[in-house]
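[recover] target loaded
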């Protein structure tokens, strides 16, 4: 089946892509929506500019749609891009929704309206099992933004590994954060993994911290060969 993946470069969209490829789909395109609104309800914002490099590293063409990020109106922007994909013979759209009904129901509705199959391979997955699967598969995921009690500036740019997971479980027990960050507690970025033909090397980045939340802003990154 010819498919496309809604792609932010974060762990969930990368895992949705992994699941599509594992299933044997022909993933023809990645679609990144570039929002002007940092508080977009639908679209990932931190380091969205790195999706160009990730798409090149994975070797799948990237299509970029643009949106002002206004609530509900941004859905029209997404629909326009999905119509373009359908015109290019795409049959199904994968997304990385885990438990957000807001995102999933809206994507499902658009796809149903224009005649595309909507697939959310991570839907209702166990948070802890999912995060452990990401680590076990060999994906290198860094935290690119935090906005929850218990997650301070020291988490920005940090790789999610087994040690980090143990710490996150402690924070989960104390503050109740969602281990997969589906509640918006943190944003992530994939810089390497089993479906990457090259890896992302971060040359320079800076923390943008604002009292109790912040972003790991990547200023320069390149692709490098994998050994």
């Amino acid at each position: 089946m010819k498919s496309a993946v809604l792609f932010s470069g974060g762990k969930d969209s990368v895992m949705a892509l992994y699941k599509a490829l594992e299933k044997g789909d022909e993933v023809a395109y990645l679609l990144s929506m570039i929002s002007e609104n940092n508080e977009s309800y639908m679209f990932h914002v931190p380091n969205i500019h790195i999706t160009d490099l990730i798409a090149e590293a994975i070797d799948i063409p990237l299509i970029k749609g643009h949106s002002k990020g206004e609530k509900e109106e941004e859905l029209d922007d997404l629909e326009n891009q999905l119509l373009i994909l359908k015109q290019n013979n795409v049959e199904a759209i994968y997304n990385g929704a885990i438990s957000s009904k807001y995102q999933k129901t809206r994507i499902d509705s658009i796809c149903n309206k224009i005649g595309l199959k909507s697939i959310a391979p991570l839907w209702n997955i166990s948070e802890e099992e999912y995060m452990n699967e990401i680590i076990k598969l060999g994906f290198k995921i860094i935290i690119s933004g935090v906005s929850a009690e218990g997650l301070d500036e020291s988490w920005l740019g940090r790789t999610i590994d087994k040690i980090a997971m143990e710490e996150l479980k402690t924070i989960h027990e104390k503050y109740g954060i969602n281990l997969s960050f589906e509640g918006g507690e943190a944003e992530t970025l994939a810089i390497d993994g089993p479906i990457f033909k090259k890896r992302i090397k971060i040359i320079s980045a800076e923390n943008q911290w604002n009292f109790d939340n912040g972003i790991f802003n990547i200023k320069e990154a390149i692709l490098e060969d994998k050994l």
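[recover] notes: The radius of gyration is 17 Å.
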